[in-house]
């Protein structure tokens, strides 16, 4: 998820987003034809770009009557809104929730999941017979972003159920309104961050609400994965424990986009058995889905606009046109054809660049009506809340015809009527891809979705193997609430809320006693006959960030004091360092000062004509080995890795990507202990593969890049969430070594999953490198956009040979007399760390 906006800080005014012009009524009246629109794109950009087309058939809806137990006021509100019947999955979920079962509702985008839990919850809130005397039943709604909470508020308000008291409670809620919400609201909408930092530490003030708490809704639960998901799982366990203190046992209702094993994921989140409702009974319009690969760059001389048909400078002539640039042209073409379109990009910078390029294309083409760029804007995390809500309203109303967005818009914000979706680069998982393309066609009309392949190994592999895109089931999000680094922090927070007792192991797991003993030994907690106690002066929850970053840095315009947005502190060194170029709604700013301690980056309006890219160095130590095995020509292991990194400089790049200069930076070193997977090569395995000693560094380096690029094939991860290093003689192993590590403290399960699926992962990596048609390596196989060494040295031929040897060894297993597969391996000898560049 792209920097969700949990809303823990005050908002300030900023320039409003672009005001979109009303759509041409004649265009709006013309029904969108997905096949015709795709044919127009092919005619404009060339047939070879279109690699595959799949039509997803329309589906008829299956209906069920409202249950007899539905409150008359709720039933009347539904009938007046034209919702007198439910879809079959809504009715199934509503019956299960009403009967007291924990439920996860996992169906497609726009399948009306909210109504499946709102019907029983609102009925009980109005009835009140299940609540203790003195206050009616209450319900708590948790969303990963504030935008989604406010969208849910609008949805409930639209039902106009008389007598229902519903309110949001987040960082934007005025102080004077908070007491009313605690004391009077029946349905409170918030996010896990506020639950963690405010509600649970201050539970005595919420005692009446918690005593009457009957339901907890966890919306968009597929977002809770990795370390973030592990944190949220423990927050929910803390909530269960506090509720027990007030003698309440709420029913948990989870809603999710289509994911693999939804019951398993939901049970991991709440720590209790959950019933899954997965058979989607909602109607769905037909969808045309295209896989699109941008053309190869052609060096025809500079073109500042980066338009198709003009290549970059010879220094960057190799490879394909970027997915962002190609998606910008497709967005502009679709908007000019009258189609309301959203284009998703992976990063904030990519969104800003995509929106600016698409608006420029519309102005250049001089299209009438929605042209001239007035109907295109950007939408991403880091914007102030009022800006994002204005953009959402403009998109719903149709005034905004084109939008470039991060996954901040993916999370269930109710946007209906979109004709097309463009996805700039594989979003990382099948579930995320289906969620994004499901944003189109939400009013029952046929729609178009286009996946534009990025120039990296995974995207190249996917467009060449479309069955991998369309056929597999969605992934199961991976979380580990037993991760000791995560669990220890929440045990401390729990002890500050209520003393931790031995029976709490039923909530926190079998690892609790050992961690408590360690916390006592370190004088973090104190053991008393009544349990384990927190003795510090301040609540410890404030020190724990659920999203992997502690604090944020506000981006403030010098001179005016206007807050333009924010960025996580962990990302500040690389994104808002002095000299960095920061883009906000098409306007360019230059960072003149960064004070991470004060949480402020000062910027001035400027258009220098270049972009910036931070460069880092790092040191790695391979620690204890959790698992390992021989593969014949070497070994493969997973275990603990310590990473010390520092941003040392930044590059200035022109619009074509050429480097204009490198400038040093003086920033502090950051240390992180995480998990990694690494493999080694013994001689003669590498020399027998035809790799010379001189070619070994470049061959290992290229294999590392390709492995990082293909890791998302076997685990829910983006290549930007992992780092790597390769060396011809690693000081910890004394062998040629390739390492891939989780890019978050304590690890997120990425390396562990890579180790578990090593045969599939590394065989696919070798196949992708061998199948690439380039001569010496390109972004589609072995070049990396995040390489700290400038993609040097790289040897594609040697990488292909080494990956083939590795894949064959993993298939065949260890030679006779060697350690069998999956036997625990001893730790490698400890040596001094080596200096490398992350992701290189």
Describe the structure.
The chain is built from 26 helices and 30 strands. Mean pLDDT is 83; it is low at 1-29, 299-317, 368-373 and 819-840. The strands form six sheets. It has a seven-stranded mixed beta sheet with strand order 1-11-16-15-12-14-13, with helices on both faces. Strands 6-7-5-8-9-4-10 form a seven-stranded parallel beta sheet, with helices on both faces. The two termini are 24 Å apart. Helix 12 (323-336) packs across helix 13 (348-365) and helix 25 (758-771) packs antiparallel against helix 26. Strand 22 (587-595) and strand 23 form a beta hairpin. It is an alpha/beta fold. It is globular, with a radius of gyration of 27 Å. The longest helix has 20 residues, at 226-245.
Mean pLDDT: 83
The whole-angstrom Rg is: 27 Å
In total, the number of strands is: 30
* Strand residue content: 15-25%
Distance between the amino and carboxyl termini: 24 Å
The neighbouring-strand order within the major sheet is: 1-11-16-15-12-14-13
Q: Which structural category fits the helices and strands?
A: alpha/beta
User: Which regions have little confidence, pLDDT < 50, spanning 5+ residues?
Assistant: 1-29, 299-317, 368-373, 819-840
In which range does the helix fraction lie? 25-40%
């Amino acid at each position: 998820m792209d920097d969700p906006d949990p809303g823990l800080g005050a908002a300030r005014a900023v320039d409003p987003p672009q005001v979109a012009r009303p759509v041409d009524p004649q265009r709006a009246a013309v029904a969108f034809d997905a096949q015709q629109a795709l044919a127009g794109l092919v005619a404009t950009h060339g047939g070879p770009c279109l690699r595959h087309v799949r039509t997803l058939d329309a589906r008829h809806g299956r209906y069920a009557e409202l249950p007899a137990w539905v409150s008359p006021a709720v039933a009347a509100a539904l009938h007046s809104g034209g919702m007198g019947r439910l879809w079959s999955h809504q009715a199934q979920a509503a019956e299960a929730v009403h009967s007291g079962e924990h439920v996860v509702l996992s169906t497609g985008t726009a399948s009306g999941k909210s109504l499946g839990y709102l019907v029983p919850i609102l009925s009980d809130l109005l009835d009140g017979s299940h609540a203790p005397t003195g206050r009616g039943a209450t319900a708590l709604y948790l969303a990963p972003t504030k935008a989604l909470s406010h969208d849910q508020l609008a949805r409930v308000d639209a039902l106009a159920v008389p007598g229902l008291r519903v309110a949001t409670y987040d960082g934007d809620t005025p102080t004077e309104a908070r007491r009313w919400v605690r004391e009077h609201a029946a349905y409170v909408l918030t996010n896990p961050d506020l639950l963690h930092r405010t509600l649970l530490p201050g539970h005595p003030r919420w005692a009446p609400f918690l005593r009457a708490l009957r339901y907890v809704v966890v919306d968009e639960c597929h977002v809770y994965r990795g370390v973030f998901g592990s944190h949220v799982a423990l927050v929910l366990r803390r909530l269960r424990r506090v509720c027990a203190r007030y003698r309440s046992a709420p029913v948990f209702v989870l809603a999710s986009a289509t994911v693999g094993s939804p019951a398993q994921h939901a049970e991991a989140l709440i720590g209790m058995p959950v019933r899954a409702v997965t058979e989607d009974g909602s109607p769905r319009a037909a969808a045309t889905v295209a896989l699109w690969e941008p053309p190869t760059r052609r060096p025809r001389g500079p073109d500042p606009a980066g338009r198709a048909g003009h290549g970059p400078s010879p220094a960057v002539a190799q490879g394909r046109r970027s997915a962002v640039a190609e998606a910008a042209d497709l967005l502009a073409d679709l908007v000019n054809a009258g189609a309301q379109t959203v284009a998703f990009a992976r990063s904030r910078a990519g969104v800003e660049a995509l929106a600016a390029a698409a608006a420029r294309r519309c102005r250049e083409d001089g299209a009438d009506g929605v042209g001239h760029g007035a109907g295109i804007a950007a939408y991403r995390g880091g914007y102030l809340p009022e800006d994002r809500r204005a953009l959402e309203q403009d998109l719903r109303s149709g005034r905004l015809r084109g939008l470039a967005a991060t996954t901040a818009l993916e999370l269930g914000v109710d946007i209906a009527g979109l004709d097309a979706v463009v996805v700039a680069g594989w979003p990382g998982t099948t579930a995320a891809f289906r969620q994004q393309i499901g944003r189109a066609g939400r009013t029952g009309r046929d729609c178009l979705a286009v996946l534009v392949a990025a120039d990296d190994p995974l995207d190249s592999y996917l467009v060449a193997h479309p069955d991998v895109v369309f056929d597999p089931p969605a992934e199961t999000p991976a979380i580990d609430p037993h991760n000791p680094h995560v669990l220890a922090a929440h045990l401390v927070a729990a002890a500050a809320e209520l003393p931790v007792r031995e029976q709490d192991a039923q909530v926190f797991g079998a690892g609790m006693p050992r961690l408590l003993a360690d916390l006592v030994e370190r004088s973090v907690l104190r053991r008393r006959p009544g349990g384990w106690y927190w003795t510090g002066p301040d609540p410890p929850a404030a020190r724990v960030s659920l999203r992997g970053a502690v604090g944020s840095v506000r981006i403030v315009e010098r001179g005016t004091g206007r807050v333009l947005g924010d960025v996580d502190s962990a990302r500040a060194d690389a994104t808002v360092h002095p000299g960095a170029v920061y883009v906000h709604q098409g306007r360019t700013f230059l960072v003149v000062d960064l004070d991470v301690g004060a949480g402020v980056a000062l910027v001035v309006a400027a258009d220098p004509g270049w972009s910036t890219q931070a460069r880092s160095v790092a040191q790695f130590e391979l620690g204890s080995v959790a698992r390992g095995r021989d593969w014949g020509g070497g070994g493969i292991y997973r275990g603990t890795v310590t990473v010390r990194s520092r941003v040392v400089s930044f590059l200035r790049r022109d619009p074509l990507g050429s480097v204009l200069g490198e400038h040093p930076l003086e920033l502090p070193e950051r240390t992180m202990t995480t998990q990694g997977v690494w493999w080694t090569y013994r001689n003669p395995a590498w020399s027998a593969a035809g790799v010379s000693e001189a070619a070994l560094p470049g061959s290992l380096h290229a294999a590392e890049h390709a492995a990082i690029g293909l890791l998302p094939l076997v685990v829910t991860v983006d290549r930007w969430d992992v780092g790597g290093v390769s060396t011809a003689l690693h000081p910890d192993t004394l062998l040629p070594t390739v390492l891939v590590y989780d890019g978050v403290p304590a690890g997120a399960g990425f390396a562990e999953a890579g180790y578990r699926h090593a045969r599939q992962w590394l065989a696919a990596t070798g196949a992708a490198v061998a199948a690439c048609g380039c001569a010496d390596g390109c972004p589609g196989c072995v070049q990396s956009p995040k390489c700290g060494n400038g993609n040097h040295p790289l040897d594609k031929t040697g990488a292909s040979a080494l990956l083939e040897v590795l894949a064959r060894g993993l298939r065949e297993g260890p030679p006779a007399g060697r350690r069998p597969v999956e036997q625990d391996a001893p730790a490698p000898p400890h040596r001094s760390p080596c200096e490398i560049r992350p992701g290189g």
